Amino acid sequence: MFAMIFSAAIHTPAASVYTNYAAAARNERHIAPAFVAAGIIAAGMPVLAGLIAILTTARYGIDTGLSGYRNLTTLASEISPVVGGVALAAVLAAVISSGGPILLSSATMFVRDWLPFTRRYDSARRLRAYQVTTVVYAIVAALAAWVVATRTTISILDLLLFGFAMVVPPAIAVGYVIYWPRTTERGAYWGMAVGYGAGLVWFALIKLALAFGFSAPEDASALHRLLVYCLTVDGEGIDPSYVTTFVPLVAIPLVSRLTIDTSGDREQFYAMLDGTLPVDREPA
Questions:
Q1: Distance, CA of 202 to CA of 133 (rounded, Å)
Q2: 60: how many CB neighbours lie within 10 A of its CB?
Q3: Are the C-beta atoms of residues 240 and 195 closer than 8 Å to each other?
Q4: Less Cβ around it within 10 Å: N or C end of the chain?
Q5: The dihedral sign for the CA sequence 93, 109, 183, 250
Q6: What are the residues whose beta carbons fall under 8 Å from the beta carbon of 24, sequence distance 6 or more?
Q7: Are residues 157 and 274 in the same domain?
Q8: What's the whole-model pTM score?
Q9: Phi/psi class of residue 279: alpha, beta or left (left: φ > 0; alpha: ψ in -120 to 50)?
Q10: What confidence tens digit (pLDDT) does each residue in 134-162 have?
Q11: Do 168 and 240 lie in a common domain?
């Protein structure tokens, strides 16, 4: 089981290689060669994962009781610094690969939603606003990472994995909007908001529980023991990604059932989605 978990941790980044290479193509003619090149690169991931799993199992056995990205990469580094470095790079690449789209989309939303005066800009000035906002976002993120690394005991890797977990609520909301027409704007909004809030609270509770040595006495109730287990299992607690996944899954349909979408764009959106209304044509 330990070897399988490690193999999955290293093999997962291969899935993002295809989309990253295809998105970087200059035009449609380059997409097919990009997919082929990405496939060749991704083909090495299962080999690396299998090698690490075999070596790890041979040295430490299958009953080590260790889990988590930090322990896995540490064990890989002890086996071979080269293989361990590649493993750590693969894990970080899987997380950081989401940073670029998040940064660009956040800058776009900030300019469009919070800087209304930019609506009067032409395309060149608006592009400049996007670029400046992106640079500011990047500088703030770099300063935050520096403060966390030098002034706190929180691992940067923990924050990166937490950031990856925070991508889940909007992805679930998009899935609901596309595949469940009953989804309302309020349902998607509050599903994402509650998912973000629950993830932040859970992450903070884990850090507080580990920092203050939260534990259950012998006569503790079953609920108390369950809470201790969820916040301290394997010295890391249950990953916030579970919270940011299940909370929106429940909140979005629940709120959608209780609200009505009055925007008037629902029919047009789903008509364009199923192809009955061309995207470049306005409804009559």
A1: 30
A2: 15
A3: no
A4: C
A5: positive
A6: 34
A7: yes
A8: 0.64
A9: alpha
A10: 899 889 888 887 888 788 777 766 777 78
A11: yes
